[in-house]
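ok, trying the design again with the full structure, not the truncated one.
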């Protein structure tokens, strides 16, 4: 579990760093060379989105995601209830994001849609959804077991 937690921390840090670095490089290219990288804005956006999704899974492990603590302070058992509700919710999102990508008739993979600037199939880009939801479920289950 420590390896997975470290991996999530690394991935979220890497993607935020890569997004900032690429945005900086593109700004320099535009102002110094009067020619920006056409694909940089799209890739920067994807880097930031990936950072958020991997950081979300990491924060479920640390129980530092957004939550209302007023009742949790008074009734500690609600922490476990909140984790169970989170697991149910994350499972629903994981299932429907999987369908959104891989449904044989209506999914992104079947549509053969590609990104505008990167020419990458959109289903590859959207894979972060089910992957991060499953990782969030794993982190929440670990937190629910009391290993934090």
């Amino acid at each position: 579990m420590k390896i997975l937690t470290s991996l999530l921390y690394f991935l979220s840090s890497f993607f935020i760093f890569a997004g900032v670095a690429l945005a900086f490089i593109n700004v320099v290219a535009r102002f110094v060379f009067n020619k920006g990288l056409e694909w940089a804005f799209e890739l920067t956006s994807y880097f930031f989105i990936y950072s958020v999704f991997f950081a979300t899974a990491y924060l479920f492990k640390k129980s530092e995601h957004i939550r209302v603590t007023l009742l949790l302070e008074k009734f500690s058992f609600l922490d476990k209830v909140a984790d169970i509700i989170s697991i149910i919710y994350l499972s629903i999102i994981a299932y429907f994001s999987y369908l959104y990508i891989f449904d044989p008739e209506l999914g992104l993979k079947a549509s053969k849609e590609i990104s505008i600037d990167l020419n990458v199939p959109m289903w590859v880009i959207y894979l972060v959804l089910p992957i991060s939801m499953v990782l969030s479920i794993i982190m929440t289950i670990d937190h629910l077991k009391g290993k934090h």
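Keeping the full-length input from now on. The helical segments are 2-33, 40-62, 70-74, 77-102, 108-111, 122-126, 128-144.
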